[in-house]
Write a structure and sequence with these properties.
The structure holds 2 protein chains of 2 kinds. Chain A is mostly helical. Helices cover 78% and strands 0% of the residues of chain A. The radius of gyration of chain A is 24 Å and the shape is flat. A two-stranded antiparallel ribbon of chain B has the order 1-2. The chains are: A mainly alpha, B mainly alpha. The interface between A and B is large, with 88 and 85 residues. Chain B: It holds the Pfam family BPD_transp_1.
């Protein structure tokens, strides 16, 4: 068998496996979105069919948009996620730089202290967190959520980023020092751009749990004005359990924003990963 | 002597924001919780009882049955992730990273999509799909002539936990895939070229060259899976409720903690027993992380390129 033919067969096999898995991954999303625009009868009669002119019926969306306040929920989720992400990346990278760049007393102890949080579910402290937020008047504010998510995201960010920062060449940093750059300039102008791929990775892994969290919005910010989209759709699904059109439409609307955000973000992520690897 | 080196203020400036936020919002509340576990409700306010709550949790038949059940279920949940999620993730990453593969970006994005969905969506979607009422799953099995295999998987004690673990695997397989993919891409071309010149290609190239190089990444994924699984709560809560039905067959430490801490239909919340469970979970996770750090990571050579 020639080498070319073998590699063709191999590439067909690879595509077959990947397509199969892609179908498995996307199937539930497909089922929900397709059925959300069908009439109730069609949802049950033929759940796997595309909507046709006869079966098309946007009544679910009408119900959801009349009842729910999805735009406000979406905005709340967006604010919380972006703000937390910003603080996690900035503070995390700063701490990671301090830990990986300088030798000082208590260095590895400090690293261990910060890494502890990777395995501590911040939820275990919920009762005390709630007491603190009540005491400081932060209950039912988005600030409370941003604080909690920043604390939650920092350990993993510090851990991953300091691994990457150890890989940044010392010669480069020392050349910067000889040229009279301050430590801050070395961090912001030399090191940060070089660890961008790692930042993108951290950003994706930090963003997802924040966006999807149900627990803390439910406890710390359940008011109508501060509901996140996850909480909003959960409450909505709970109320309309028998109205299948509305439930499917609500699910689709909850999937859509995070899907769009991910599609925008994933280019960044993939560019980051590949740029980091090719260099 | 030229005098001591100047105080390096910048180290403090770099560290301070992270350490302050982390300590105030995470460590202090956690210590507060551990502290709660040493008390119990008394006649007038709370009384110090030392480790009595733990003795109750591990030994008292009213509590220990539920605890060991939750722990066993949790171990099974983790085992399925290790046996299914991580090998599948590595395999997908290996396929994706093969050079000249077209549409790699599309596959990568598509397979990662379930990971970005919230538990609320995932739990509800799979409940709908697997429900005998809607009949998507039975209908599809009918289509390939296997209708007899269908069972209400989420409603049967013997299948429910495994089904939920597989749903969780479906959701999170993108994470090992992405991490391994990045690790595979960071293997320098020279190494691969050298292997190819020596005639090592395909499967044996993966096994002999790439696998040893990505072992540290696999180690990190394993410990992240462990920590994630022993903290799991949302998926089980969203799909099976706080009672982790049917008949507690899907009860894991997270749901057990929730019920104890906040109470549910049949009992009042008990913050002190809840704190004791939280502390036990903390201990289990700590043990796993120590095994990883001192038993496994030490043996993995770090390759520097």
């Amino acid at each position: 068998m020639s080498l070319a033919r073998r590699s063709l067969a191999r590439s067909i096999a690879a595509h077959a496996v990947l397509i199969t898995y892609t179908v498995i991954a996307l199937f539930p999303v497909f089922v929900i979105v397709v059925n959300s625009v069908k009439s109730r009868r069609a949802i049950f009669a033929d759940p796997l069919a595309w909507p046709t002119a006869e079966t098309f019926d946007p009544v679910g969306y009408q119900t959801v948009l009349r009842q729910g306040d999805f735009l406000l929920y979406f905005q709340n989720s967006m604010i919380v996620t972006v703000a937390s992400l910003f603080f996690v990346l900035l503070f995390g990278a700063m701490a990671a730089f301090a830990l990986s760049e300088y030798r000082f007393r208590g260095n590895s102890l400090m690293g261990l202290y910060l890494a502890l949080g990777i395995m501590i579910p911040i939820r275990l402290g919920t009762v005390v967190i709630l007491q603190m937020m009540v005491a400081s008047g932060l209950v039912n504010t988005l600030t409370a959520l941003v604080l909690v998510y920043t604390a939650q995201g920092l350990p993993l960010a510090v851990f991953i980023l300091s691994e990457f920062m150890r890989g940044v060449s010392d010669d480069l940093k020392n050349a910067g020092r000889i040229d009279g750059l301050s430590e801050y300039a070395i961090f912001f102008r030399l090191v940060l751009p070089l660890v961008r791929p790692a930042m993108a990775t951290v950003a994706v892994f930090t963003m997802i749990p924040i966006w999807n969290d149900l627990w803390f919005p439910l406890i710390l910010a359940p008011s109508e004005a501060t509901k996140t989209i996850t909480l909003g759709s959960q409450v909505f699904i709970g109320q309309f359990v028998t109205n299948w059109n509305a439930v499917l439409a609500a699910l689709s609307l909850a999937i859509l924003p995070v899907l769009v955000m991910y599609l925008i973000f994933s280019r960044q992520l993939i560019r980051g990963i590949t740029a980091g690897a090719v260099k | 002597m030229a005098g001591r080196r100047a105080v390096r203020w910048h180290i403090g400036v770099f560290l301070a924001p992270a350490v302050l936020v982390y300590t105030a919002i995470m460590i202090v509340p956690l210590l507060g919780t551990l502290n709660l576990s040493l008390f119990a409700r008394g006649e007038e306010g709370r009384v110090f009882v030392g480790l009595a709550n733990f003795a109750t949790l591990f030994g008292d038949p009213r509590w220990s049955g539920a605890f060991w059940n939750a722990l066993g279920n949790n171990a099974w949940f983790f085992l399925i992730h290790m046996l299914v999620q991580n090998p599948v993730g590595v395999a997908l990453a290996a396929l994706l990273s093969s050079p000249r593969l077209r549409m790699a970006a599309f596959y990568r994005t598509a397979i990662f999509i379930p990971t970005i969905l919230s538990f609320v969506i995932v739990g509800f979607v799979w409940k709908l799909i697997l429900s005998p009422i809607w009949g998507i799953a039975p209908g599809m099995l009918d289509g390939i002539g296997l209708r007899s295999l269908f069972a209400p998987w989420l409603g049967r004690e013997e299948y429910a936990l495994t089904t939920l673990a597989l749903i969780s695997v479906w959701q999170f397989v993108g994470i090992p895939m992405m991490l391994i993919y990045a690790a595979l891409l960071s293997i320098p071309d020279e190494v691969i070229e050298a292997a190819e010149i020596d005639g090592i290609t395909g499967w044996s190239q993966f096994r002999k060259i790439k696998l040893p190089l990505i072992l540290p990444a696999i180690g990190i994924i394993s410990i992240l899976t462990f920590v994630g699984n022993f903290n799991a709560f949302d998926l089980l809560y969203v799909s099976q409720g706080a009672l982790a039905g049917p008949d507690f067959s899907t009860d894991i430490l997270g749901t057990f903690l929730y019920r104890t801490f906040f109470g549910f239909q049949l009992q009042l919340g008990d913050p002190h027993m809840g704190a004791a469970i939280a502390t036990a979970m903390f201990g289990i996770i700590l043990l796993g992380v120590c095994v990883y750090l001192f038993g496994i990571q030490r043996r993995l050579r770090r390759y520097q390129f």
